[in-house]
Amino acid sequence: MTSLTILRARIGNAILAPADSFSTRTVYRRSMSLRGMFKIVPTLIVCLALISAAFAGRAEKRLQIYFIDVEGGQSTLVVTPSGQSLLIDTGWPGASARDASRIVAAAHAAGLKRIDYVLITHYHDDHVGGVPQLLDRIKVGTFVDHGPNQEDSDATRRNYDAYQKAIGVHPRIVATPGMGLPLKGLEVHILSAAGNLVQSPLPGAGTANPYCSTEPMPEEDVTENARSLGLLIEYGRFRFLDLGDLTKKKELDLVCPNNLIGTADLFLVNHHGLDLSNSKALVWSVHPRVAIFDNGAHKGGSPAAWQVVHDSPGIEDIWQLHYAMDSDKGHNVAAERIANPAEQPDGQYIKVEASSDGTFTVTNSRNSFQQTYGRK
Q: Which end of the chain is flanked by fewer CB atoms within 10 Å, N or C?
């Protein structure tokens, strides 16, 4: 063996030895790294699951509206995505606290232990009569109304006196047009109160109303109906209109010559669906996608008003709390969209759940039939 051969062998050994040593350490380190990764993978999976659940829970929170059957009166429970609550009217007095009990049942179904705000549209007994019995059954935060009774009748004076006595020292807000209510995540617009109306259009409203020119001029209404506290509730792109028992003269003042309200996805048909209200100029100009009649078996749901709503441009569906027994089959919707199709009272309600993108679902509590209306 030559000296050159020996030198080459030594150099080769010197090069190979560190290489083999480095390779072993690298494999070992990678092995340890993989073991560490396997240890943290379960933790990562748990964290991702928790994050996904948190986002899913957030997405599931929707605006809820319960249209409670108070046999031809009004009681509508609004529950915000944050859990605040607004009850619009309390139904009738008496009847072994039937209406108050139904309201409390709906509140419990919504997970409520108290009602933050109770708004009284006006002082007729089918709207304000249930207040004393309601206060015996659930805690209430603040009352909202339009101020003193303005109807010259013994019945409404008695109703207002009973209301004042019942609410006692509860906080009270006297609402005026243009005001709002502090419900987190919602925009609440007071449109009418004590006979007064908003004077400026809501954002996006104010266009000329083409239906005003053919609308007959109604007579003045001196009752509490025309003093109704009416409101529009917005949750993102979803809009819900409730004008209480506002009658035609005041309706026209809100939408003629220009529509100060704009459009509504969901419309609680005025005055239980009586034709003293629900002028074509109002209903057709707000273009409701879905309308709900809070009628009784023998109150509201008149054929004339029903037809106006049915023929409204863009209407997709009508739902009713009761089959209107004094009307006819052609002026009632299909049974699947009627909460109480028989004459006897059974207290089924209609529930609406709305997302901020404008999508909403209507459910009949009697048969669980539901319909979803996509965003526009």
A: N
Closest C-alpha to 259, from 267, 251, 248: 251
How long a stretch of residues is the chain?
Answer: 376
Predicted confidence (pLDDT) per residue in 205-257, tens digit: 999 999 999 999 999 999 999 999 999 999 999 999 999 999 999 999 999 99
Residue whose C-alpha is closest to residue 115's, from 87, 144, 137: 87
Specify the pairing of strand 114-119 against strand 85-88.
parallel
Q: Report which secondary-structure segment, H or E, holds 172.
A: strand 172-174
CA distances from 95 to 28, 31, 160 (A): 83, 78, 19
What's the N-to-C CA distance of the chain in angstroms?
Answer: 92
pTM: 0.85
Which is nearest to 264 in space by CA: 281, 294, 284? Answer: 284
Q: Write the burial class of residue 11 (CB in 10 Å: 0-12 exposed, 13-18 middle, 19+ buried).
A: exposed
- Three-class SS of residue 115? strand
Bridge partners (DSSP) of residue 119 are 88, 144
What strands lie across the sheet with 338-340, from one edge to the other?
A: 196-197, 187-193, 230-235, 238-242, 266-268, 290-293, 317-322, 338-340
**Whether the Cβ atoms of residue 148 and residue 172 lie closer than 8 Å to each other:** no
C-alpha to C-alpha distances, 52 to 81, 261, 357, nearest whole angstrom: 19, 39, 21
* Alpha-carbon gap, residue 21 to 26, rounded angstroms: 9
Backbone angles phi, psi at 280, to 5 degrees: -60, -35
